[in-house]
Amino acid sequence: MGQRKAPKDGDRKVGRRALLIGGAAAAAGSAVLARDELARLWWRTPGVEKPRKEGEVDYAGARWVAASDANWRRADRPDDFGIDMVIVHVTQGSFDSAVKAFQDPGHKAATHYIVRQDGHVAQMIRELDVAYHAGNRDYNERSVGIEHEGFVDRPQDLTDEMYEASARLTARICARYDIPVDREHIIGHVEVPGTDHTDPGPHWDWDKYMRLVREARTGRA
After folding, report:
1. CA nearest 204: which of 161, 165, 151?
2. Does residue 133 contact residue 145 with C-beta atoms inside 8 Å?
3. Cis bond upstream, residue 200 (ω within 30)
4. Cα separation, 67 vs 127, whole angstroms
5. Are 73 and 129 a contacting pair, CB within 8 Å?
6. Beta-strand pair 130-131/186-188
7. What are the tens digits of pLDDT across the range 88-117?
8. What is the CB-side half-sphere exposure of residue 153 using CA atoms within 13 A?
């Protein structure tokens, strides 16, 4: 990096009036930022919560089944944490066992959604909140997690109905947060830095899934 040169005599000088005006503008800008920050944070005051409707879902095709409060934390996404990623998981068990685990406060993990093999979608955590699903705090804060019923070593568990329902869900999430439909922004749990998980496993058909997401994103599904 080169050194910054001293201003030349011909450079425009800032007068006192300009400094006063600039200072006032900066103060006004700071006030706006402070007001916006308060607007986002007021609900964190003890005894105050951001208004929410019980049982409300972010995806019209989902049914609400609440996860334990211990498996996620309240947030105001995408205002406090931008959402730029979808993370794909496989449950390593049945749909019912995953729901039971996510409702257990001792489990300490849950995803926003679970997709059943018949295409049924359950939402367990609101998208505005941070789910403990990726094993990486940064990735948790910036992603939406989707579980899929089945086992990574059983390709027969990955049904067409599940792929199609999940693709429609992911397409809606990508549209809502302007997330690019590519493999840099739609990833598997195994691709999260620091994780010891292997899902969605070697039988997950990424080419098929991404094609279905693109088709759903463009309205052709």
Report:
1. 151
2. yes
3. yes
4. 13
5. yes
6. unpaired
7. 999 999 999 999 999 999 999 999 999 999
8. 0
134 close to 83: Cβ distance less than 8 angstroms: no
User: Of 157, 138, 141, whose CA–CA distance to 199 is shortest?
Assistant: 157
Backbone angles phi, psi at 68, to 5 degrees: -65, 140
Residues 6+ apart with CB under 8 A from 80: 40
Contact 27, 20 (CB under 8 A): no
Question: Which strand (E) or helix (H) includes residue 52?
Answer: none
Residues 140, 187 contacting (CB under 8 angstroms): no
CB atoms within 10 A of CB 19: 10
Q: Which of 17, 43, 113 is nearest to 72 (CA)?
A: 113
Residue of 149, 221, 178, 162 whose CA lies nearest to 85 = 178
Helix intervals (H) in 89-156:
95-102, 137-142
Please write the tens of the pLDDT for every residue from 14-27. 343 333 334 444 44
For residues 134 and 110, give the distance between their C-alpha atoms in angstroms, rounded to a whole number. 9
Q: What is the pLDDT of residues 176-207, one digit of tens each?
A: 999 999 999 999 999 999 999 999 999 999 99
143-148, strands of its sheet edge to edge: 62-64, 121-123, 113-115, 143-148, 85-88, 186-188
